User: Fold this.
Amino acid sequence: MYEHFFLCPYCNANISMLLDPSVSHQAYIEDCEVCCNPINIRYTVDDNELIGFEAESIEQ
Assistant:
């Protein structure tokens, strides 16, 4: 596991998240720890290196 920082797409708060590099692709929804809005998280890891990360708002 390693720590990754990104900005919340709603409130622009700096968010810290632990990512698991043993899984090559992840996609899930997690609430912002500041504003509680749902964030669509997607990331890709290759050879234990983060090669793609997206944190987007959920379309309503």
Remarks:
- The chain has one domain: 2-57.
- The chain has a mean pLDDT of 94.
- Residues 2-57 form one domain.
